[in-house]
Each structure stands twice: as structure tokens, then as C-alpha cells.
Design goal:
CATH class of the largest domain: Mainly Beta
CATH topology of the largest domain: Immunoglobulin-like
Structural class: alpha+beta
Radius of gyration: 21 Å
Number of strands: 6
CATH architecture of the largest domain: Sandwich
Length: 172
Amino acid sequence: MDVALEFLSSFLPYIMRFNLYSWLFLAGALVLFVLIFVLGMMLSGAARKILIIFACMIPTVAPLLLEFASKKMLMPVDVNLSSRTLTYAPTFFISGTITPTGKLPIKTCIMTTKLNPPPTNAKSKLLAVLKPQFVDKLTLNGPFVLGESLFVQHSIGGITTEMVADIDVSCY
């Protein structure tokens, strides 16, 4: 029983990212899936296959649509960050502002920084995308006020060489 509770509690940070609108969208997608799947089971022939395939696409596409709608329409953020490797300390420094510009309130932002040495050829560019040399995640908690900028300063220690940063900010 403890193993099952520990396994379920590992999903808690991801479940807490969803707001009421996300839960309603996912519940609607589940109801739509069940209705189309049952209708497909009642029919026969080619219509049956088409409806079952369409029904099985709904659970696959729903999380992607939810992510797209959240990032582009409901909870977009304006990110203005600068980053550099410090000269006199083995540290990578990030500073700038994050401004929520969407329609829904934001509870949490996660800033993911992927660091790689400057690419020299196409192979090193591909390797940098597939497996970054260093990944750092910073979680910014708290209810953010729409339209007000949040000033962010973050340092990553242990970086001795010049690095190229790929910074992604996702807000929920």
C-alpha cells in the first residue's frame, strides 16, 4: 500500500499544475472519447473503423491541444531574459523579467535552462538539442498578477567555460 501511495504522490506536482479550465477540458475530451468510441462499436463496416480510430486520436491530441492553448492563448508570458558566463567566478548568470500577459491567473512558472558549449558543426548542434551538457530547473511559485513583471535573477554554479543557453519558461 505504501508503494502505491508513493507512486501516486510522485504525480502530485504535475497534477497541481492543472487549473479548473484544464480539468474541464480534459473531462470533456474523455466524455467525447467515450461517446465516439461507443458509437463506433455500435456501427459496422468502414464507419466503425473510422470512428474508433478517430476516438483513439482524442486522448492523444487532447494534452497537446491543452498545452498549445495554455501557452499561446490562455496563459502566455512575455519573457525578456539575458544570460552570460561570469568572468571571475565559475557561474552562469541569468537575469531579466517575466510578465504574464494572458487571460487566466498563473500559479507557477518553471524556468528550464539547458547549457551547452558553443556548437562547432552540425553534429554538435544536434547533440546539444538531444542531450544538453547541463540542465537546471527553477520553480517560481506564487500567484502572479497579470500584466505585472516579475524580476528574476538566477545563478548556476560550476560552469567554468563559455556556454550557450537555451532558456524555456513554462507557466501554469
